[in-house]
């Protein structure tokens, strides 16, 4: 990881702190305006999903590559069910289940998941 900006383990009690750290790190990496807000929200969704559905340890790492900001959120949970991972549209009255859908609309996302955990890689272009 070239240009590491952030690397730590987290739990439920650290969600707000992690969001502030992601915001500051992304801003320092060069994201501004809506690009910054979108990326932070996408990462926040990944972090809250890791806390809600994953098992410790949960980690986050953020780094800069030429022209890109990357953030990886990991957990050791049971993995994401296929029906959730590949849902293309949300029903109007569905409660919850929008995190992955939202992440894909706010950032470039790659998800690796299985019985040993999940890794969500989010990327944004740095202007």
From TrEMBL:
Enzyme Commission numbers on file: 2.7.13.3
Transmembrane segment boundaries: none
Pfam families on file: HATPase_c_2
This protein's record includes keyword ATP-binding: yes
Enzyme class name: transferase
Keyword Zinc-finger: no
Source domain of life: Bacteria
Coiled coil feature spans: none
Domain Histidine kinase/HSP90-like ATPase span(s) in chain numbering: 13-123
Keywords from the named record: ATP-binding, Kinase, Nucleotide-binding, Serine/threonine-protein kinase, Transferase
SUPFAM superfamilies: ATPase domain of HSP90 chaperone/DNA topoisomerase II/histidine kinase
Molecular function terms, GO-annotated: ATP binding; protein histidine kinase activity
Protein name as annotated: ATP-binding protein
Organism: Microtetraspora glauca
